[in-house]
Amino acid sequence: MSAVAWWGWVAAVAAGSAGALLRTWLVRRLAKRPVPLGVLAANTIASAVGGAVVADREALGVVWSLVLVGGFCGGLSTLSTLAADTVELWLENRRRDALGNVVANVAVGLAVVWGAWAVVS
Predict the structure, then answer these.
(1) 2: pLDDT confidence band, cut at 50, 70 and 90?
(2) Is the Cβ–Cβ distance between 30 and 41 less than 8 Å?
(3) How does DSSP classify residue 33?
(4) Entry pTM
(5) 51 within 8 A of 113, measured Cβ to Cβ
(6) Is the separation of the CB atoms in 82 and 101 below 8 Å?
(7) Which distant-in-sequence residues (6+ apart) come within 8 Å of 83 by Cβ?
(8) Residues 46, 111: contact at Cβ < 8 Å?
(9) Which long-range contacts (CB under 8 A, 24 or more apart) does 117-120 make?
(10) In this predicted structure, what is the pLDDT of residue 78?
């Protein structure tokens, strides 16, 4: 593992904050939907960025990979919000929506990572 300069860690923290702010905006903006589309949107965007970074990791280098994936994508995507939204749907007796929420986030995330990787590589 290559060493990362101090500014790389600072940039990763800043990028994580930006990702978290974008996730919060998406969740609030898309809250009035039948299912939590804000989390799906956040996870989809993070998956696209992650797939592109994986495809071009050598050119980007260790610092930008950390900033983009560890920072921005880490702040943007969230398993905890997905899990909480899914449990809430389940407890509201919306079992089909709860299962669909999990399937959609995993399937779309995987598809977008592969698609971004294919475009960049």
Answers:
(1) low
(2) yes
(3) S
(4) 0.79
(5) yes
(6) yes
(7) none
(8) no
(9) 117/51, 117/52, 117/54, 117/55, 118/55, 119/52, 119/55, 120/51, 120/52, 120/55, 120/56
(10) 77
